[in-house]
Amino acid sequence: MKNQEKGSKLYLFSIVLVAVLGGLLFGYDTAVISGAEKGLQAFFLNAADFVYTDGMHGVTCSSALIGCIIGSAISGFFATRFGRKRSLFLAGVMFFLSALGSYYPEFLFFEYGKPGVSLLWAFNAYRVLGGIGVGLASAICPMYIAEVAPSNMRGTLVSWNQFAIIFGQLVVYFVNFLILGEHTNPVIEKIGEGLYAVSSSSDPWTIATGWRYMFGSEAFVAGLFTILVCFVPESPRYLAIVGKDSQALKVLSRINGSKVAQTILAEIRSTVEVRSERLFSFGMMVIFVGVMLSVFQQAVGINAVLYYAPRIFESMNMGDPMMQTVIMGIVNISFTLVAVFTVDRLGRKPLLIWGSIGMAVGAAGVALSNLVAVPPVVPVVSIMVYSACFMFSWGPICWVLIAEIFPNSIRGAAVAVAVAFQWIFNFIVSSTFVPMYNIELGAMGVRFGHMFVYALYGVICVLAAVFVYKLVPETKGKTLEDMTAFWSKRRNK
Length: 493
Fold this sequence. Notes:
By secondary structure, the chain is mainly alpha-helical. Helix content is about 75%, strand content about 0%.
């Protein structure tokens, strides 16, 4: 009875941790390719019925991203039609099937261990399926956390999702390392423009089996997530929207206490009495702000830095590039924790603005180091500053705002649109980085490209700070229902 009156933080944390596990799978699935791609490339290079080109390998490595765009785009439909819980369960099933399918793409239809073009299509189909799961999870996990969390803890709890994404990436790096063990990655030799062959000295186990275990390892985490989702409640906001007030009240009471729950439910009901599922029911501005938050999170260039970190550090002549990458990973996870513990005290806007300024300074440091002679440590420290500032600002805070800024009645559809734009710009930035990075001009040669790309990201960081200052409302301490009232008032002006 006492817990019913005051609510249970233990209950809240337990259901949030299940949702956070979806974020960990998000990071795990997107990063697993890093350890498996060389073995996978060597496997398909041995195909007899087609030539596995460099371009094909690039598409294969990024095929999950296609699924991410699809999954995020349809997340609004699933979250609105079937609820947050069932959608997360579906994402878990997709993660699980993708992991098993990527481990054993020959299942039912093909001869085991015999590469061919049809098998390549099957493998990519399984990776796209996993990407759809990532897209669903990337939109719905923070949405679910935001809808169950009390307003004074919402920023912190949603930020844990970003921490889980980064932690999932680190976990899979470690798992891939353990799977590889004493074996070695295959040696790939270039034999022509975009054409490669496997060296005879390569480890056959890595080519035939190693990459399978790396992809298959995700099935254990995916299976656990899928089972645990069955035991969490549906979002009380969704329950109220579909008219299941008694169930919504029960969940709210367990989290907030019975007295507070009544008040929260009344506020929720007041925002959905006139239900509208039209995306622009509250005007264009709310959608514009949500979409631009997603666009700026990717346009500042962070994923280009993360994806190509070894290449960048190698060009800076700074020791072992892989070691520098590991150090940056430690920096990233440390500064994500800064956001976790400060977002509900300092607010969303200050963290975004100061993070943008810090990123601009870091990007400027890298750009200037390509114009004047400086010790290699200068650009390395600059890029660490750039990455660290992203991790306490745009990394987690963007997800927090996307989860809480939209009105209740359009949240599912609006989040889907915003996250879809995030994945689209992830692809644009990632695919344009290398061509821009390698631009040559006059006496500067390739240093011009190194300077240009970071100068561009620095300018975008400044624009991001201006955008946040001018247009993004502060949501610290506000309920999700307060945001409905805010946008309704702004629409009627």
